[in-house]
Structure formats: structure tokens, C-alpha cells
Amino acid sequence: MAKEPVRVLVTGAAGQIGYALVPMIARGIMLGADQPVILHMLDIPPAAEALNGVKMELIDAAFPLLKGVVATTDAVEGCTGVNVAVMVGGFPRKEGMERKDVMSKNVSIYKSQAAALEKHAAPNCKVLVVANPANTNALILKEFAPSIPEKNITCLTRLDHNRALGQISERLSVPVSDVKNVIIWGNHSSTQYPDVNHAKVQTSSGEKPVRELVKNDEWLNGEFITTVQQRGAAIIKARKLSSALSAASSACDHIRDWVLGTPEGTFVSMGVYSDGSYNVPSGLIYSFPVTCRNGEWSIVQGLPIDEVSRKKMDLTAEELKEEKDLAYSCLS
Q1: Which residues of the chain are in CATH 3.40.50.720 domains?
Q2: pTM
Q3: Residues tagged active-site
Q4: What secondary structure letter does DSSP report for 5?
Q5: Which positions make up the binding site for NAD(+)?
Q6: Which of 36, 255, 304, 331 is most buried by a 10 A CB count?
């Protein structure tokens, strides 16, 4: 039996992440090679012509799994009936802008998009926020879409997770598919904590801890962490544009694992609504290690946390509390 198509919304679809993401979704990279999709692409009115160009290209690519395309600047039309929503659209920080100005713009965007999803999305719609500040944008969306279960609202830290896997893979000259269980704790910002204390590498003699194989704590506790934290800035410096291909690919990874499940013995990083696990304050969208089964994520429990990790985890939680306060001050 052919599967019913899944409706996937991409906001900011005419932008460069959107342009990298929509063909991946249409090819089955996000939801599987046997899952038909209907793409809903939403963008702002000034981008309408470019958005139509993307629609033309999707038609021209003749993707077998793509059963329909909605390209619109109307949030209601964009959100109607969607099962998965990938929120890429946001207001980027421009030179000379204060954090509060950027936050204020994004608060108003996410407040209005939350209202449209709340009223028009399919029941049990899964939401992934990509646009920065991703954790806090997701929190605002949660506040203004109370009928969407809080466990269905997440933000993207899989890009940071994949960057961490990539750095270990390069350092050890092993395939990235042999590295697993790095963790990104906290905010998708330069305060995030990339943690390798639980990470493993598949070797010819079984799984070995990353620390044991790297044999260089100075690098793991220093340059490795800063490289992952600042990788986005390094890519902007090199490309003169922000990371799009890797962001789109990790958004697919995030949704695919959430919907189809994580492999046995493997955990991934997702920004989710904190329940107080690991003494992280509840009421924040914070990146945790999770496993996924049957379309639900669960925080991995009981991992030992050393003193150095604790400090870094608390530091990024502090920043998230400040962002939350700033966002709420924009609302009043």
C-alpha cells in the first residue's frame, strides 16, 4: 500500500537554507525513501517571486515522492494541514543591531506563526525551529501555540552535534559514521557545551571511548569545544554566507530520527522543553541527549556529569534564562 503523503511546511523557503532543504525533503532524505510528501513553502511578500522560482524548479526536478507544492506568502494557507513544520524564516541580526532589536523582530514573527500553526496545522504536528535565536524562538512559539503539545516543539542543535562528530572524525581519521554519542548541551549559540565524555568510536576491536582514542585532553577540552562553538562564524568568514547545506542536512537528520527512531545504543542532540533533567531549569528549550522511538523523543537519563561539564551546562542555561527574559520583555 502506498503511504498517504505527509505535508511538510518550510518557512523562509526562498532563502538559502530553504533552497538547500526543499530538494532534500522532496528526495525522501527527511522522511524516508518510501514516504510521499506535499511541500508547503512560506515566505514574506518581498520574496514571493523568488519563492515561485523555487516552486518552478521543484516541478522541473520531477521528484517521484513529491505529490504537490504549495508556495505562498499567506501564513494560514502555508500552515493548513501540515504534519511537520520546519521554521527557517526569521529576522537575521544585521551589523549595528542590538540583541533586543533582533529579539523583538523574532518575537513578533514567532508569535504570529505560532497562532497560524495553532489554528491550522494537523493535530500532533511536529515543529522544528531553525531560525536564530532558535531555542528562544521555539519557546515563544510554544507560548503562543498552547494546543500543540510541548514535546512537539523543538529546536535545531543537530547541526552542532554533527559538527562535533565531524571534528572527532577528522581528528582520528575515521569515518564519521563510526563516531556516536557526542552531546550538545544548552543553547544553539557560542555558549553551547559540546561534550565528548560519553562519545564512542567503533573500532576493529569494538567500541572505544573518544577520550581514550584521542589521547589529548587539552585539545578535547579546548580547541575542539571552541571550534564547534564557533564553526558557524568560520563558515561565514569562508563563504561570505552562513551555513546552508549543513543546516538543511541536519534539519533532515533531526526530523528523520524523531519520526523514524534513533539506532539502538545511539543518542542525538535535540533542543527540547526542559523537565528539570540534569538540574537544568524547567521552562527553557535546552539541548539534551535524546533517543527517539515511535515518533517520541526521551531524554537520556543517568549520565555521570563531572564538575567541568556542570559549570558549562549551567553557563549556557544562564544565557537561555537571559534570552527568555529579554523575549518576554519584548512582549510586554
Answers
A1: 6-155
A2: 0.97
A3: 188
A4: P
A5: 12-18, 43, 106, 130-132
A6: 255
